[in-house]
Amino acid sequence: MTKYQLHIAGDWVDPDSGEWLDTIDPYRGEAWAQIPRGNSTDVSHAVSAAQHAMTDGPWATMSASARGKIMRNIGDLIVKNAQRLAEIEVRDNGKLLAEMHGQLTALSEVWYYYAGLADKIQGSSIPVEKPQSVAFTTREPIGVVAALTAWNSPLWFAAVKCAPALAAGCAVVVKPSEFASASTLEFAGLTKDAGLPDGVFNVVTGLGPEVGSALVEHPVVSKITFTGSDTTGTRVYETAARTMKRVSLELGGKSPNIVFDDADLDMAATGVISGIFGAAGQMCSAGSRLLVHSSIAEAFTEKLLQLAQNIRLGDPMDPQTNVGPIATPPQYQKVLHYIDVAKAEGARSILGGRPATDPGLVGGQFIEPTIFVDVTNDMKIAQEEVFGPILSIIEFDDEDQAIELGNDVAYGLVAGVWTKSIGRALRMSKALHVGTVWINTYRTYSYMVPFGGTKRSGLGREHGIEAVDEYLETKSVVISTDDGQPSNAFVMR
Ligand code: NAD
Questions:
Q1: Whole-number pLDDT of residue 485
Q2: Rounded to the nearest 5°, which phi and psi values hold at 144?
Q3: What confidence tens digit (pLDDT) does each residue in 239-297 have?
Q4: For 8-26, how does the pLDDT look when each residue is reduced to its tens digit (9 = 90+)?
Q5: Same structural domain for residues 260 and 247?
Q6: For the purposes of burial, counting CB atoms within 10 Å of the CB of 312, is it exposed (0-12), middle (13-18) or buried (19 or more)?
Q7: What 3-state class would DSSP assign to 462?
Q8: Cα separations (Å) of 381 from 177, 216, 349, 354?
Q9: Rg value, the chain, Cα
Q10: 286 and 407, same structural domain?
Q11: 284: domain CATH number?
């Protein structure tokens, strides 16, 4: 069994606690590796290493172009190690190997993209109204960044947080989820091979309340970038406020996929099915509420059933598998709980609604793709994030009602709209209070397009040029060109 160490100041070190946590393969239900149980002492060492790298190390004096070159090396090493990294993440969280292949290609591109931005970060010159004054701004790295990530896509989260942070000149301490830490630790080794100076990229694994909270409380950390549940995100936000840390939060969703009667129904059905059953529904952007026009509801539901009945559950390493296991035991229990809640509230399952019973799946945490009808938007199944393969179908009669239902949740991450009318598509994209609207497509992510939530789905944006701003402070410099008196000097007599 692989036994990992922490990555601090460029070294592999044992945790201060002397303890390790088992990491479970959710397909086999067996431990396959052990990750260090870090604590606040490890956090202090990692934060000191990051602070040292930002003030005294070569990172502090290196040109932005040189930073970019190292980041490009990281992208190259991801390409070379893609198969190995993909297999590790599949063993850790049950994500499909086929999906990981696509994600790793995009992952190297994320590093190349932000490598290219590193030497394009610049301030501006301001035509200030004061006579004999010159004013300009500089953009400076925000300081030591703590990146706290969720278990469903650890390498992706590490990339979209750390690549812009490094482009900005920051140093980072990553705390991956205790359920899926191995790929981030493996990746740390690549950053060293790429030539990243010691202390710029540190990884401390362990439990949220032990490692995560120590990072959020640490006085030297300037910025927290967090992906996870809104419950933990709220706690992180409150704690970070005490030391006035900058915070970005990528939280949950209860996203609507809205299908109008003028849509291409075959295309929409494929989008709805992959939008909720892809990754077994364990996606922040899962389209967990289908809002469908009442005139097509019956025919469209029939199309969904035909597609969903052909979904193959199985080994996430097998290219034939469409849906893998639920990643963690608590998440498995949570999904089953919501199925019970939905039934108790009066929703009717027309597909699935139980754990998968195929003998080939025993040992894994599998739940059948589930579709509920007779759902109203006030039910828990329509309001709360399940993070599993559960679709709720709700009907609407007109555009206004679709907007009202679409917005009537605490979250505001993404929405899908399926229509052939350009006018309607634009009206809907304006009216929906979400961070991203996908028209006639769903989950079409790009690392170049800003991503993030409104309302309870979070704060700040990842991806795109905007992401770099999350790791920069603006400094203003005002210079008097009058060698005699400063322009606003107190006059001495
Ligand atoms: P989680 O909130 O349980 O954990 C996230 C991270 O926070 C983990 O590393 C965890 O160890 C750490 N943590 C836990 N308690 C902490 C504490 N007290 N202080 C500091 N850190 C602590 O979330 P999860 O179960 O790992 O992930 C699932 C959630 O993530 C879902 O709600 C999902 O919607 C969300 N998510 C959001 C996005 C997005 O981009 N918006 C993407 C993926 C997942």
A1: 67
A2: -70, 130
A3: 999 999 999 999 999 999 999 999 999 999 999 999 999 999 999 999 999 999 999 99
A4: 999 999 999 999 999 999 9
A5: no
A6: exposed
A7: strand
A8: 26, 32, 12, 15
A9: 24
A10: yes
A11: 3.40.309.10
Can you give the residue range of the structural domain that contains 58?
2-251+457-477
pLDDT at 361: 87
Same-domain pairing of 349 and 398: yes
Total domain count, the chain: 2
CB of 38 shorter than 6 A to ligand 1:
no
The rounded percent of the chain whose pLDDT value lies above 70 is: 98
Give the range among 73-87, 198-212, 351-365, 466-480 with minimum mean pLDDT. 351-365
Task: Assess if residue 489 is contained within a domain.
Answer: no
pLDDT(187) > 60: yes
Shared-domain flag, residues 185 and 330 = no
Could you say which DSSP state residue 271 is in?
A: H
Contact (Cβ atoms closer than 8 angstroms) between residue 298 and residue 405: no
Same domain, 412 and 330: yes
pTM (2 decimals)?
Answer: 0.96
Atom 18 of ligand 1, residue of closest alpha carbon: 209
Q: Which of 233, 230, 173, 248 is nearest to 206 (CA)?
A: 173
Specify whether 106 is located in the same domain as 156.
yes
452 belongs to a structural domain: no
216 lines ligand 1 (CB under 6 A): yes
How far, in Å, is the centroid of ligand 1 from the Cα of 144?
Answer: 20
- H/E/C letters for each residue in 377-441? CCCHHHHCCCCCCEEEEEEECCHHHHHHHHHCCCEECEEEEECCCHHHHHHHHHHCCCCEEEECC
* 46 and 146 both lie in a single domain: yes
Q: How far, in Å, CA of 163 to CA of 158, rounded?
A: 8
Of 162, 284, 385, 395, the catalytic one is 284
